[in-house]
Amino acid sequence: MKNFKRCAFALFLTVAFASISFAGDLGAVYSKDWTPDQIRAYVNKPWTAVEKAKMGGSDMGYILDKKSFPLEKLTGDLTAKQLYQNGKAVWMPIMMQYGIGMNMKTFKKLWIDEGKWKDPKHKLLDIRMESEFLQGHVPGAIRLDTGLDFWYLPGLAPDQKATYYLQCKSGAPGDGGIRGALVARHMRMMGYTGEIYNLTDGFRGWLENGYPVINRHGQFTLVPGTFQKPDPYFTKDKYPKTLKFSPQP
Is residue 4 included in any domain, yes or no? Predict the structure, then answer.
């Protein structure tokens, strides 16, 4: 009987701690939809222990609160790993804070099925590189240079109260949906007060769901599962080597 009670108590603790761990875990719900109220509440609430652990276990705090970051000592020669960790100490909190919004299935219903692409109060900003945009993009998207967004946003997105959707390449926690998070933060800093959604599964999610894309050749759909597959007509030695650190988001 004692053993039974111990096992039951252990099971109770396991379930309880599991529920606590995932309650505030952004990664567990990253590709799901967030309401505007949920986004505002999440951005403004303090970091949880789980979120701190995802950022390396140290108390980095919100970057908007200007708390210190645990950077390596900037003396002597830094290794590639140290440089990457220094950069991660800055962009990871931003992604954890602003990398939330809605997935592409929900966005497609709004953008295509409900015709929001025709509404001037709804704007889709594609924040990938120009080369990525030219290869293919969501119909109706406007390309915004992430590195120059402070300069281009007033011209491309002059309505501070409009609803904006930010779309990068992958949008998955493991791949880095950082570009949307960076632009969302910049827009809030600049005074945008409308709803801002980071599309959580990015252009990859749009393609893998079989939705239409467009480029200079016209509109088409990509066969799901073929996105970013190597070109069989090129030899492997012509592909750029994958970097161990700083993977392209």
Answer: no
Q: Which domain holds residue 63?
A: 27-70+78-249
Helix ranges (DSSP H) in the chain: 2-23, 36-44, 49-54, 80-98, 104-108, 130-135, 149-156, 178-190, 202-208
Question: Looking at residue 197, which CATH number applies to its domain?
Answer: 3.40.250.10
Q: Which of 143, 147, 170 is nearest to 155 (CA)?
A: 143
Write down the pLDDT at residue 238: 64
d(CA 118, CA 121): 9
Q: How far is CA 145 from CA 4, 87, 142, 168, 231, in A?
A: 61, 20, 10, 11, 27
Residue-wise pLDDT for 106-126, tens only, equals 999 999 999 999 999 999 999
Query: What single DSSP character describes residue 237?
Result: G
In this structure, is residue 31 part of a structural domain? yes
> Does residue 173 lie in a domain region?
yes
Query: Is 217 part of any domain?
Result: yes
In the DSSP assignment, the letter for residue 114 is: S
